[in-house]
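The following block was generated as part of the benchmark described in Methods. Ligand: magnesium ion.
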Amino acid sequence: MATTRETTDRSAVRTLLRLWPYVRPVRARLFTAAFVAVVASCTGLVIPLVLKWMVDGPVAGRDPAGVWLGALYLLLLGIAEAVLFGIRRWLVARPLSHVEAEMRAALYRRLQRLPVAFHDRWASGQLLSRGTTDLMLLRMFLAFPLTFLLVNGVTILVGLVIMLLQDWVLGLVILGPAVPVVWTCVVFERRYAQVARRAQDQIGDLTTLVEESVLGIRVIKGFGRHRSQARAFRELAGRLRGTELRKARLLATIWGVIVTLPEVAIGAALVLGVLRVADGQLSAGTLVAFLSTALALRWPVDSIGFLLAMSQEAATATERYFEVMDEEPEDRLDGAAAGGARSRGGADPAAAPGLRFENVSFRYPDAPPGSPPLLTAVDLHVRPGESMALVGATGSGKTTLTALVPRLHEVTSGRITLNGVDIAAMSREELRGRVAVAFEEPTLFSASVGENVLMGARDAAGKAELDRALAIAQADFAHALPQGTDTRVGEQGLSLSGGQRQRLALARAVVGRPEFLVLDDPLSALDVHTEAAVEAALRQVLADTTALIVAHRPSTVLLADRVALLSGGRVAAVGTHQQLLRENAEYARLMSGEQEDSR
Ligand SMILES: Nc1ncnc2c1ncn2[C@@H]1O[C@H](COP(=O)(O)OP(=O)(O)OP(=O)(O)O)[C@@H](O)[C@H]1O
Ligand SMILES: [Mg+2]
């Protein structure tokens, strides 16, 4: 799966540079903040110089007033450093939460615009974790490591120059560990990048598992599967823990090297320095200044380990973020498809009014390679105002065929026309405004009944339209809910029965008085009486709507003017119910309720 790819070779810097478009709007503040932090950090480096002046001047000369003056300087420098760091924090906090919000909004927009095929392929938990954990890592990176890698780098350089100027022999002793430290950092970076990626992918997998267990809680409880589910969770969580421990071990190693080697060097410089002061080659003040500079550099050096670690995690998060952002959204695919359609002849309204499938074949992009297309050469013409039932064994591709009409999936070859116009040449907005759908799985959102139904209409629809749609779908129960049609339903609201949900989904499909109506088994969960009532009302709607209705039961089929039988990836027969019952053995078998499953 694309979501658990391991990366070995990639440049963290190049990856992180992709954040620039989002950071650009706040660049002025960010640069100012970095500059302020550099100044603050270098202010800290003046302190040792004041110490040197105090030791060699007032202290050596036993001048109390001079010592007090020195102490005052030190106090002022300390306050200046603290205030500057405070200003930095204030400068970055707001713009960075703005960056995070913008990136999250962009991700959400992209997820909405990506084709269904993308969502079929990606686990929801992987998407969730990108929108939450990964973006948080990025904000933390921009707030902290990004600035401090720069600030600490500059501080270390300035500090080293100061130390070399104080005494170049001691300076070289301090510089000694630089080579092994840099080497460790390089090796560490590469390993840490891999483990960080694995950890973030595992968080995504864990999120998926938790999400599925929550959504599927009834199945889990009903089958007493909580133990095996808990085992699966423990296993994934254990794997994540192992990866996190590996991260911690890597961090511990580099931390050990980065902290120990400079510490040893400082010790060596101390011994050497004391000997040279004793020999009179060095003033005591210079040694004090030198050592306090070295000690002041300890935090900038020590911090490099985890700053690099955080940067690696941020690079991984960026990479995961852009894996989604780089996917082609539906509307960008539009142009190409439309061009192709036009070159094939395009619109000819007189030719074929109604809904027409012309030599349509389709295979799922993620079907196993080499497998035959699910639909091959489907030809079907639903005349204007006609309602056509679509019948076929389970798994024959009925749902797939209906999903092609609103372009939830793209035909592999052939074309579908509405009143002679290729749907590939229409904008999706126009197409979806003309075609309304009700799916097998009636999905309701956390909103009121009214809002859920009116989702199917263009903006202008009001109370009257809502009531009419509810009446057609026999969903008048909605008026009897605690707050009528304002009652909240869905995940964060009242639970409805399967049949109730199905009727609301049907109301949503008919509320906009669509030109074309595609219903995927819309009445399967209803009892015979309710089904009959819905049918009677639907018949009025269907009178002036061109409809394609997937049906399993004879009672639903009878609603339609004609029936098409889908078999072997083709439309095997078209006719009235009676005709097909007489003439087509497969149809007769499907409708009679004998051995239905042909697979
Ligand atoms: N997203 C997908 N990716 C790959 N294959 C799919 C996908 N969705 C469905 N299929 C496959 O396509 C075939 C047809 O599925 P489809 O849902 O269209 O059948 P159906 O006729 O609607 O069946 P039913 O009567 O049970 O609703 C099935 O074999 C299924 O495994
Ligand atoms: Mg189906």
